[in-house]
Amino acid sequence: MLIHPWDAGQSEDEWVAFVRAQGFGHLVAGGGPDRDVPVVVPTQFVLADAETVVLHLARPNPVWRAIEENPTVVLSVAGDWAYVPAAWKALGEEDPRFGVPTTYYAAVQLIATATVMDEPEDKAAILRVQLADQEPGADVADPAEHGRTLNGIRGLRLAVREVRAKFKYGGNVDDEHRAAVAGHLTARAGPGDAAALRHLRRRIPTS
Predict the structure, then answer these.
(1) From CA 192, how far away is CA 207, in angstroms rounded?
(2) Cβ(122)–Cβ(150) below 8 Å
(3) Could you report the per-residue pLDDT of 5-42, keeping only the tens digit for each?
(4) Hey, what long-range contacts does 147-151 have (CB within 8 A, 24 or more apart)?
(5) Coil, strand or helix: which one is 107?
(6) 197 Cβ partners below 8 Å, 6+ apart?
(7) Integer Cα distance of 179 and 183 in angstroms
(8) Cβ neighbours of residue 145 under 8 Å, at least 6 residues apart?
(9) What does the DSSP 8-state code read for residue 198?
(10) In the chain, what are the domains?
């Protein structure tokens, strides 16, 4: 992923908060050299901490063979996107016809080593983490009580080795132009605009 210096994540806290808020991404397993294309699995997950991701997938999933061939995987997470029309990029006497349209978005790629978890208690532990994340305080049975149903899934623990974080929110323009786009996002209030606006405002000085 291309990351310009002005688009790079500002801190670990920033990318961690974004990944946790999304909670859904694409697990990419390249597999061995004989594969024509990688296996790409859309999946829910939990970022337990900045170095650990846990998730589970169905046993018949083709990703398991690819992970056996090569345990290095990528968890790709993207979101909080908003289209910025050309006219929004023009201020004052600037001709709006020559404004440069773009899309604001955030994207984080976690390069990790995958470990398959097949023991029932290990899988139950992953499910507990996911339930606590998605249904905190819910009255649900402990995953271990599902017995043989656990045989239908396998768990994954991803040990994060590298993080590539991109927050493309006008970092290549001046504060005046970013502020103008912020005003348009506020007025439009479309899907994704509020999230994009929060990212953008972190990049506008308050003083």
Answers:
(1) 27
(2) no
(3) 999 998 999 999 999 999 999 999 999 999 999 999 99
(4) 150/120, 150/123, 150/124, 151/59
(5) strand
(6) 82, 182, 185, 186
(7) 6
(8) none
(9) H
(10) 5-82+102-172 (2.30.110.10)
